[in-house]
């Protein structure tokens, strides 16, 4: 699709620059949670407000006509016929890790034109790893192409990421390793680069998934509901949480992984 106004190269350059800058800004708050609290909500709130303000200032300077998801109720005219750009910025993914000084957290940025994905980026500032994708241009980690290499086999070396309360809802006989890193976008990005066979997610939102889904799809994967039903991100544009459990996996792997996971109470 053609991009009105700014060219894709200019948009890409801005996105990479601003997310790198945002990562450096976030590092000023990283690991500074109060030691007498398991979770320092005040620190997280301060960091998120600072980062959101930082992004808005940069966007107004470069593309004042562009919109930002979450600024106001969704525009009724933001449909496929409306010409305009929408940025979706998730300042902190993995806030518990962030405030505790655990390096598994990141910041996400996605760009849409009339609901069509243009760019998706996920940065892990502590490691410097930047995942980046365009729908028709492939996916990259620090400028190196990445992609899913699913062989069709699940074994004891396979890896499934999950959320922290999986044991409350499911039991599993997955033959490989099951891990939770505490960062949804990292889970999805590692699936996209072939490091894991899948990632289970629950209670996520449009903002949580916007960038990571672009990266995953550009790598040859997709997100579906665990029961096999298709998942359409734009149905959650009004910022409500997704009801049910999602599975991010290579195309062709969803049914296999589903066979290893059963809801508590199911035979």
UniProtKB/TrEMBL annotation:
<protein>
    <submittedName>
        <fullName>Inositol monophosphatase</fullName>
    </submittedName>
</protein>
<keyword id="KW-0460">Magnesium</keyword>
<keyword id="KW-0479">Metal-binding</keyword>
<feature type="binding site">
    <location>
        <position position="93"/>
    </location>
    <ligand>
        <name>Mg(2+) 2</name>
    </ligand>
</feature>
<dbReference type="Pfam" id="PF00459">
    <property type="entry name" value="Inositol_P"/>
</dbReference>
<dbReference type="GO" id="GO:0008934">
    <property type="term" value="F:inositol monophosphate 1-phosphatase activity"/>
</dbReference>
<feature type="binding site">
    <location>
        <position position="90"/>
    </location>
    <ligand>
        <name>Mg(2+) 2</name>
    </ligand>
</feature>
<feature type="binding site">
    <location>
        <position position="92"/>
    </location>
    <ligand>
        <name>Mg(2+) 1</name>
    </ligand>
</feature>
<feature type="binding site">
    <location>
        <position position="208"/>
    </location>
    <ligand>
        <name>Mg(2+) 1</name>
    </ligand>
</feature>
<dbReference type="GO" id="GO:0006020">
    <property type="term" value="P:inositol metabolic process"/>
</dbReference>
<dbReference type="InterPro" id="IPR000760">
    <property type="entry name" value="Inositol_monophosphatase-like"/>
</dbReference>
<dbReference type="GO" id="GO:0046872">
    <property type="term" value="F:metal ion binding"/>
</dbReference>
<dbReference type="GO" id="GO:0007165">
    <property type="term" value="P:signal transduction"/>
</dbReference>
